[in-house]
Amino acid sequence: MTRPVVLVGFVAAALGSSIKDFQPDGTVIFVEEPDVVRKRGARETVAGSALVRELIEWEFHLPGKADEFYHVHPDLEPAAVVPLTEYATPFAARLAERYGLPGAGFGAAQILRDKGVLRLVSRAAGIANPDSARVENPAQVREFMARHPGKIVLKPANRQASVGTQVLADPAEAEQAWANCVVQDEGVFVPDRAMELKMLAETFVEGDEYSVEMLLRDGEPLFANVTGKRLFPGPRPVELAHIVPADITDELTAALHEETRRLTEAAGFGTGIVHCEWIVSGGVPYLVECAGRFAGDGIIELIQRAYPVELNRAYFSVMKGEPVEDVLPRKAESGAAVRFLSIESGVIDDVRGVEKASQAEGVFLCDVGVAAGDRFDGLRSSWDRVGDLMVTAGSPAEAIRLAEEAVALIEIDVRPDGEERERAAP
Questions:
Q1: Which of 93, 167, 315, 354 has its CB 3.0 to 4.6 Å from that of 104, i.e. a possible disulfide?
Q2: Which domains does the chain have, with CATH numbers?
Q3: Digit-coded pLDDT (tens) for 43-55
């Protein structure tokens, strides 16, 4: 009988992904927090999937829960333990250790999960970082700004998706920014109990942003891609677009690969995949953060189409300790991009052009998650974006051009509170 794979963190999209092409029916076990299972209707979702053997409710965010799980399920004999969400990475790494399976390593997963700890470790290893300090109140934010003139970034050390992150230009903004940033409600994606508040103040690094998606086995890179990033304007650094591969020189690509390899080595990362974010300023890659799991925002889908490569299959093979069947490409053959949508705050009157955009050149996915009558309260994190559109093309530049053209076909009318109806551009 085929041994099951344990997927930590419920991601509904995994049921429709390429996992089903190489994982037999009845061999996937999801582990998710009870509150999240309830709030996201996870049981109802997996009930219709032949792929899923079981959904186990487990408070995996809490310390010691991987060891407890191992003792409660000593005969599970999984083939792999795979984290699907950011908060799942330490639990998955420890559980893999207990079952004697490949994984990131519990120590490495803990380093990557805390941005403050990651700063200490990576800086000591000679990797460029912005100046950073833990802060506990607005007064400490102002003190940091006094020591570091210019713009800073205030952000949580232990969150995801740009939640609670804001750029400040003036110490007078500290009180309001602190109030904004400590509101870190992720709704259905996290348990109802409170998470520890850990805040960082960091110097703002001006430059182009990239991420590196790297697959490793026993610390050795097997595949790497560089993704180009664009942000929405404003004080909240939320991604507007991702372009695969980044349209940059071979020299910069190699430098970003090498810095990511050095970072994983510094953290002691073993086997798995990382999503490391960088800002290049003056030719130097500065570390933003690094996650020990698959990239979100559709980046993996873009990679799989642009190279092309069966990265999902290769990742699961590595996590099972099996050989990777296919030769993994070093360069992409084409380009792919995802472009996100946001709107002004207010009540939505009408949404038009989605079908037209979905039929535009190169588009293979177009989704808008708002409708007439919905209220939109503003762009604070990645969770607040109202839609996304994905395209493929012959080159990265062509992909993002086609994405922008398709997005321009979507019209969303928004009525700001207390004002007459007006149209907001995506």
A1: 93
A2: 5-101 (3.40.50.20), 131-204 (3.30.1490.20), 209-330 (3.30.470.20), 335-424 (3.30.470.20)
A3: 999 998 999 999 9
